[in-house]
Amino acid sequence: MVILFYSHFFLFSILANYDKILMVIKLKREIQASVRDIVDFVYAQGDILPLMTQKNNMRDGIIIHQDIQKKSSGEKEVFLKHDCEFEGYEIHLQGRIDILDKESNKYHIIEIKSTHTFEDLSENNQPAHFAQAKFYGYMLYHYFKISKEDEVIISVLYVNKYTYTEQYFTKTYRYEELENFFHNTLRAYINFYNIIDLYHEEKLSSIKELIFPYKDYRLGQAELIDKVSDVIEDKKKLFVCAPTGIGKSLGTIYPAIKSIRDKSNKIFYLSAKSMIKDVARSAVNLMREKSNLKLKTLVITAKEKICINDCLKCNPIDCPFARNFYGLVNDAILDIFQNEDDFYFDNVIDYAKKHRICPFEFQLMLSLFSDLIICDYNYVFDIRVYLRRFFDFDTSSFILLIDEAHNMYDRVCGMFTESINFTVLHEILEHVKDEADIKKAVNNVFIKLKQYQNHLLEANKKSLKFLDLDEVLLDDVETLLNKLEKYFEKLRDKEEEINETLLNRYFDLNNFLKISEYFSDDFMIWVTNDFELNYQITCLNPRELIKMRTDSVMATVFFSATLHPMEYYLTLLGGDKDSEELLLPSPFKQDNLQIYLNTSISTKYNNRDDTKFQIAYEIQNLIKNGGKYIVYFPSYQYLDMVYHVFWRINEVEVEIIKQSRDMTESDRTGFIEQFDESKKNIVGFAVLGGVFAEGIDLKGEKLNGVCIVGVGLPMFDDFRNELREYFDRVYHKGYQYAYMYPGFNKVLQAVGRVIRDENDRGIALLIDERYASYEYLKLFPKHWSHYQKLLGN
């Protein structure tokens, strides 16, 4: 079986020309595509291959092409184009012939393909290869104005990637044969895109008729909609701080959809939380229901969550859904496209099972035919997993809607931070058996890391900062990667499986090198020696990395209930002088949330043992009238300290639960389910900034109040102090950017759990002496201006 080193990308190139392929203009439909776009779409087949195999096949194919072309006397990389009208379309095709030779007054087209075996090579088994060559044959007649009475010789040359032996499949064609083949193939291609064209016409028509799905806007929602519309029209960035209850998802998605003008427009709605993705999906479904909106939407689910195989192994040996994926996926796409508009988890799974294909790769293919894609931040910003089928091409017609944008700083910093350590190297050695070259390469990296370890020991420090990359270490890592790749090729030749742990370590090292290419003054090298030596390329400020992406799209809207203070987020998320800002007031009555400050208690680390009883009594006083409350602490240690005291002194009849470090998904669900509509009294102890401090929606009597212990400051440690030094040097606000602002955002998020709709009533108690200072009081949002200090403060 031939290895198709490009077939798994057969729809990627369609997206590269997506704004051209399906353009519906006033008088004619127009298709601009490459030959491979057409033939891969109609004839592609092949398995989903592991990423390493894909990479090697691509590289081997390029090397073989170059080698064969050097030896040939024919003309190389011959450009062809062909314009015609067919089936109501104006067609513009182009491509490049690998080798064009002239033999006995006949043109000879040679297409080169790499393979690992000569078995089963025929036009029936590899139709895309032969179709591509025949397309070139037909186009040759027109481009070079060859007489239609002449014949053309067409060859597909297969080259064994291991032995470099060659096998030709050659046939002579008359013009009529090639013309019939060309028209039949084009017709199959157009039949599918006719369906898509008709859909897009219906979509654009439905968008013109789209109206807001509710009779009235919420307070601030109309202003949000107008602002988002203006920013998209003006092709700018918008930063929105909109408190809970305004309807941010609908308020951003609705104007974004209304802004769609043609088929190239795509909306990416980004969020890290499944619940918020569901809210976004529901907003579109509401518009479908109320206005008969026609819009294809896709919710991308992580591979490990959507996999339907017995084990998470993405190769045709271990997964039946990876076998001939590219031969089956077209029928699956057509099926779901004609029957569904909402491509979400259940639908994707159902159609994937029906057509026996991988649901994860299926949804990625569906993204090409979706207008609104709801996904995690990493599909846009992470260099490891971003959607290359979109973001490696022209993105000027895309709109980014970034929800919960206050999380972006930490998330993108994490995407561009990678380390190398002794554990990674030991795991490689464990799985390479007697490979001397790899062991030598690993040892070179070991020696380099050992030098850093000795340096730390001599300095009697556990961590050190460096402002420059170690080029010797990078060279050693690259050498190790090259040795591993050769080892993987050897295993593949023997048809032996690559160990999954070893493959993961390869990708870790590869990512380490990739991130090193982005190194700038906004990075540092952070070397630590706690349990082992760890050399880490660390992103301190992702501003330029975020800006690199957002500058290339039509418009970006960052929004959150806690994008406050705005200057901080504008600075770190790539805002510029043309960026717009919008601060909206809370839509709820101010008195619905009673805010109390206890500024007589210190929660600083050195005072915690002295004040733990005071805090326990304050909690008891808060819950004395019954109800359901969550108390948030800056750390698990502090939580446990007060929890044990509260157990001893509490005199209120109440159920007490607490968050623990090792909670499973089921444990977390059980914790939240305790906060129900029953009359029981409950107090939950949780960590500020943790899973129960944001993203949970406890309306009505499910939650009556919260208590925030402390001001949410991150832990003071060497790393955070280096971050403070960086922000001091760059923005002259080191303490604020490294500690104060990110800490207070956690407080805002936790307090935001109390009032979820206009009928909610509740209490927020903030305990810390620092809440008496002007620095903190000026951070309070406007709808907190009615706060009260407890007597005695």
The pLDDT mean sits at: 89
End-to-end CA span: 80 Å
Give the number of helices.
28
Described by its quaternary structure, the protein is: single chain
In terms of DSSP E residues, the strand content is 15-25%
Q: Report the C-alpha radius of gyration, rounded.
A: 31 Å
Based on secondary structure, the structural category is alpha/beta
- Major sheet attributes: 8 strands, parallel
Based on Cα principal axes, name the global outline.
globular
pLDDT < 50 stretches = 1-27
Helix content: 40-55%
Strand order of the largest sheet: 11-10-12-9-13-18-8-19
Number of strands: 26
What does this structure look like?
This protein has 793 residues and is an alpha/beta fold. The chain is 44% helix and 19% strand. The strands form four sheets. An eight-stranded parallel beta sheet has the order 11-10-12-9-13-18-8-19, with helices on both faces. Strands 1, 2, 3, 4, 5, 6 and 7 form a seven-stranded mixed beta sheet that branches. Helix 7 packs parallel to helix 8 (248-258), helix 8 (248-258) crosses helix 9 and helix 17 (422-431) packs across helix 20 (500-516).
Strand and helix layout:
Elements: H1 12-16, H2 18-21, E1 23-24, E2 29-34, H3 35-43, H4 51-71, E3 75-86, E4 89-103, E5 106-115, H5 127-143, E6 152-160, E7 166-173, H6 175-208, H7 221-234, E8 237-241, H8 248-258, E9 266-270, H9 274-291, E10 297-299, H10 303-306, H11 325-339, E11 342-343, H12 345-355, H13 359-366, E12 372-375, H14 378-381, H15 388-391, E13 398-402, H16 408-415, E14 418-421, H17 422-431, H18 436-459, E15 463-466, H19 471-493, H20 500-516, E16 523-529, E17 533-539, H21 543-550, E18 555-560, H22 566-572, E19 580-583, E20 593-598, H23 608-623, E21 628-633, H24 636-649, E22 655-658, H25 665-673, E23 682-687, E24 705-709, H26 718-731, H27 734-751, E25 762-767, H28 774-777, E26 788-789
Parallel strand pairs: 2-4, 5-6, 8-18, 8-19, 9-12, 9-13, 10-11, 10-12, 13-18, 20-25, 20-26, 21-23, 21-24, 22-23, 24-25
Antiparallel strand pairs: 1-2, 3-4, 4-5, 6-7, 14-17, 15-16, 16-17
Helix pairs in contact: 3-5, 3-6, 5-6, 7-8, 8-9, 11-12, 12-13, 17-18, 17-20, 18-19, 19-20, 23-24, 26-27
